[in-house]
Amino acid sequence: MTEDQVQNEQAVEVTETVSEEVVEAPVETSAAATPVDAPDSRARRKGRIGVVVADRSDKTITVKVERRIAHPLYGKGVSLTKKYHAHDENNEYRTGDTVRIMETRPLSKTKRWRVVELIERPE
């Protein structure tokens, strides 16, 4: 046999060995492949802390969330507010309460958040 044939046979043996190792390697599942019902999927949901400004609707409260950002040109701190409609199953939260809300599936035309917990209740 010539040197080229010997090298080709060695290369074939190496590739067969490598391919067997790849087949035997365990397959890992990625986080993106986990179903929505998995326990860790809730960690990806957005959460906000805000103050209840309206509780007139049945099973719905309006929560005002305030955040501070730096002005893009001048750098001064600017506070921005946004209102969210959140689901309150037992109508237990009142105006002035500080609550934590979490993103959820659409419950109505404007309601996409639900109340997770009461943080502070004014006296």
Helix and strand arrangement:
Elements: H1 3-24, E1 47-54, E2 60-70, E3 77-87, E4 98-103, E5 111-120
Parallel strand pairs: 3-5
Antiparallel strand pairs: 1-2, 1-4, 2-3, 4-5
If you had to describe this structure to a student in words, what would you say it looks like?
The chain is an alpha+beta fold and 123 residues long. It has two domains: 3-33, no CATH class; 39-120, Nucleic acid-binding proteins (OB fold (Dihydrolipoamide Acetyltransferase, E2P)), CATH 2.40.50.140. The protein is 18% helix and 37% strand. The protein has one helix and five strands, in the order H-E-E-E-E-E. Residues 17-25 and 27-38 have low confidence and may be disordered.
Annotation keywords:
alpha+beta, 1 helix, 2 domains, 5-stranded mixed barrel, 123 residues
The whole-number mean of residue pLDDT values reads: 81
How would you classify the quaternary structure?
A: single chain
Number of helices: 1
The helix content, as a percent range, equals 10-25%
Distance between the termini: 95 Å
Number of domains: 2
What is the CATH homology-level superfamily of the largest domain?
A: Nucleic acid-binding proteins
CATH class of the largest domain: Mainly Beta
Strand sequence of the main sheet, in spatial order?
1-2-3-5-4
- CATH architecture assignment name of the largest domain: Beta Barrel
- Beta-strand residue percentage: 35-45%
**Mind telling me the C-alpha Rg?**
28 Å
The CATH topology of the largest domain, please? OB fold (Dihydrolipoamide Acetyltransferase, E2P)
The count of β-strands is 5
- Given as residue ranges, the uncertain stretches (5+ residues, pLDDT < 50) are 17-25, 27-38
* Structural class by secondary-structure content: alpha+beta
Major beta sheet summary: 5 strands, mixed, barrel
**String of helices and strands:** HEEEEE
Outline type? elongated
